[in-house]
## 1
Amino acid sequence: MAEEVALDLDELRQLQNIAKRPRVLNLINSEISNLEKLRDSAVSSSAKPEVPVTVPAPVSSSVKPVSSAVNYVTLGTFSWDQDNEKVKMYISLEGVDEDKVQAEFKPMSLDIKIHDVQGKNYRCTIPKLHKEIVPEKCKVLVKPKRIVITMFKSSRGNWLDIHHKEDKIKPSLEKEKDPMAGIMGMMKNLYEDGDEEMKKTIAKAWTDARSGKTADPLKGL
């Protein structure tokens, strides 16, 4: 483009020397002025140094994922008492912030989480209570040296334990399965407490009963 402008200027200057009419000279001079400005601007723009474009280096993101797992110290030692309507648990622990205690009550269980106590987290859980409670009535009270957990019983009455225990009141029927077992036990007591004559009689009756000679070991006593 610069070469074309230079050639145009040379030719216009030649016409400038030939032209005689003022109007024509004014037109030629105006065009020469325009072309000179165009030439100067082209030279100026070509003379500007190229500014290097800096591409930012990719930032390496090495952010480690934060683990959501929380470690707890199990609180397995506590005391408790009760009345007909409620059960109270007492956990000895100092420096507890009430806002950092999380309690979850269910009809047959409780889960107490205590966070940030001197850099540690504590947890007390009873997965299965002795009997049902009323979750919406239960509450946790934080005191300076202990935590008091109050659970309201679903039905009035006395709890034998705070943990659930299966009813294992099953009468032993071993002796009832063997009618002779009670008699043999009584004979043993008579033998141990009796005199020599009694011991001989019981021994004979015992032997006869075992050998099948008699069905009643007390016969003859």
## 2
Amino acid sequence: MLTSALKSNIIPNQEYLLQGSVIDSSAEVLHNRLRGLCDAAETGPETFHDHEMCFSLKASSPGGTPQQQQSFLLRVRRALDHPEYPWQLRYLGQPELGEKNQPTVLRSCIDIACTPNVVEFLSELGCRIEFEYVLKGYLFRKGRMKVTMSKIFRMGQAKSPDSLEPMTGSYLVELSLLAPSGQDAVADEIKVFAEQLRPLVHLEKIDYRRLHSFT
């Protein structure tokens, strides 16, 4: 049962994460480097073409004012290249930077396979869509670690996945690992692998609070 699994600490609900970017002109070099370092070097990486929507839901404690309300985010993703795949509902907690010597960002992460009517279900709950985009890219695996190179596209006025416009001239690169709570030693494993990708890409802990201060 889920309760027993949580008590036994066997559910991978913590994501260890480093992020960076590489410009389009250098993406092929990084792609080849990852292909050599990661598993299944002969067959190459998996590809993906996904549509992701981000929903927010306001939550407040009894007696709280509107200013005290906090929102949490839910992400819905579907595979455009494999419409037969289940949709994915993901909850991501607030990123924790920890101490300076903590190698990675740490955040809660729960993934659930679901049906296409999840969007209607979230709307009925009072969730509001904040933004949406399309991702195309490559997925590499190294043991339990996952590396993605994602090109992010803005959807056109028609809100159709077919009318796409690149948001930047670079790829988002993410190195992550899902593990049960308390397995902080895996963060060092991620850091060691990230060092092998320098100087092609610098994967770092991103402080989202600093990014918000610039918006």
## 3
Amino acid sequence: MFPLRLLALIFVSSATADPSSEEKEEEEDDEEKKNRYDLMFRRGDLLEVSRTLFTHFGIYLGGGRVAHFIPDIMPVVSTNQLRIKQMVTNTRLILGVLAKCGSVRVDSVEDFAFGADIIINPMDKMCSCAALQGEEVARRAEKLLGDVAYSLLWYNCEHFVMYCRYGTVMSFQTFQFCKTMRKLLLSRGVAKVTAVLVACLLVYLRVMDTWTVLLAVLLPFLLWMAS
């Protein structure tokens, strides 16, 4: 964890601007933005945007606010709430993924989108579960606000919104990733290559005891059977 904190202090602190001036600028047209977004989205809508190497999701709460679960290194390296509440940059996000720390937080629609186009309720046609009422969706999201352990595969932003809107914890991105990795790793070709490499390693090390040979045979056999 120490190397991640050091990286964050180097890259994140240097890129962080003084929040006081930015807050004053945002307050000028705040009401106009809130009204505009309330016409575009309904409370409880699931919002989708493209972010870095993956798709990011959030729940619209109304008033131009979005609740979303995002990896973030800043709470680990700083106790300054003004800095933590600033928009999560790609550097903060990537370091948060590596450190497995994140938070369910509320940001403006602009900060959530990070310049990307927003898609509304894309999962309604994909999920077998019916969407809950908008107010219930928003309440679920609000109850989960705070720091949460982040896992790119087992609990990410998609798991969060799927629970809030459909009552089920799942991620289509994780499913597709695991499916792709299965095709790459659990194949007959990989099993054959593994068998050859293990045999060469045993000959090179001159290790021929019963248990070592058994394990050497078992690994390619399991890969072969799983393919």
